[in-house]
Amino acid sequence: MDTALYSFVLVDDEPEIREGIRTTIPWGELGFSFAGACGNGFEALELAERIQPDVVMTDINMPHLDGLAFTEALAAVSPDSRVLIISGYDTFEYARKALQLKVYDYIVKPITPREFRETLRKLKCALDAARAERLNLESIRKQLEESLPLLRERFLAQLAGGKSDMASLEQRLSRLGLPLSREKSCQCLQIDLLRRPVMQAEITNPDMDLLTQRSILERFLEENYSQALLFQDRNEKLCLLLYGNNREELYRDGLKTAEKLWRNFVSLGLKDSIIAVGECVEGLESVPLSWNNASDALKRAGLLEKSGVSVYRELTGKVSFSGAASPLRDWERRIVSALKAGEGVSGLVDGMLDSLAKVSFSIEEYHTSFALILSALIRCCEDLEIPLGEIFPPQMDPFTEITAVTNLEEVRFRFMETTKKISAYTQIRQENFAQVKVRDALEFLENNYADPTLSLQSLCKKMDISMSYFSAILKKYHNRTFVEELTETRLKKAMELLRTTDLLSYEIAERIGYRDAHYFSLSFRKYSGLTPTEYRHAPPEETE
Questions:
Q1: What is the spatial distance between Cα 324 and Cα 360, in angstroms, rounded to a whole number?
Q2: What is the DSSP letter of 280?
Q3: Distance between CA 230 and CA 224 in Å, rounded?
Q4: What pTM did the predictor assign?
């Protein structure tokens, strides 16, 4: 298949050589596709940046940009390309430079088609080995398919038991292919198909095992309810995790599902079973609460020797305050995360208070809720090292103030004001941090431009920031790319050395970080409009 072939680009300034190599080699048989032939290094760099070829073969002796300078420039635009250099010069110096540039092979002319085909076969083996090591997709896919159901079940059991790592939640959901998100409303149902009265002499369905139970539930879900996940919890009870976008609708659907499932059990002769229904909660972090509700309902039904549907809300007589507080904690987490990331939070504050307004609390419970929210914001300030005096007026007790309000609109106003102050403080800090990093980077370039190995990666590693972040702030505050900044720094230093010293062009190139004097001359001319020699001898007023 074409997708398995490795792309090959040829760079040579002689048309007959390009055509001869293109037409005499059986590319497909050797595992390659001929992706292009270029007459000079600049043309080849443009092609390589566009198609990212697997292999590039270049003649060492070309006008404008020789093979070694081209290879050095290629590393910046297509770093994974393997390079073959072909040369009529069997010199140690060329070979040494090729080795420094990590060239795959240095071929000395003349080379026969047979020898070239053998070189390509060896190169294909190396590319195959690298591909297999890097991907090995088939093996990984097979292992994942075999272990995915077990991993999903283990994750759901950990989630229900409060043992799941919430920091990596979204990543794990995606990796496991689960149709859940952090904000989904959820409800747990626990099922006991084997419950029997203690004094019952005859045991019904003695051969009922876990696999049979699962089969019954899986068939029921397939026929009746799609938005549910089946798993075995830490108590070896089968559980259903129902999910949806609306908490109230999900609760009603959960009751209907439990009743329908119970009727199905009865029709199968399983009338001694229990289906325990937990509270509906908002957000996956609150799933343990619903699981605990269902567990309590299951235990109470078993204690009273009652079969059928056992609903936590009906056993307790009300929606507990803790049941509503758990979603509140999820809102707090989302608001704090947004503040730390420098994102807008006004919509989150509105959503939290709207959610709070839908629950019937006593005034004391409302005040407790406001205090919990305020505590989360204060902890956020402490985590961000923001002085509380920057957020709250001197001598003010924010807890006394928030619990003294008489309506939710006033609460909304106070929380909006507080979060706006925190956001403004973090934004200023982020701006200052970015400007300091740009300043430090420019200073580092000024002091280290002569290092030929200096790169965007090495600079960012030194400064402990990501390459994407640094590229963005450098463009924002200095309107330059890293390459533009480094090139100008080096070439300005070259201008100074040309004016103030008798150093030769290649010596200046080495001093400012260029490995190849010819490439330096080309860069200098492109930047200044003059060759280094012309610049040295031109009157100062013509070069300003």
A1: 10
A2: E
A3: 14
A4: 0.37
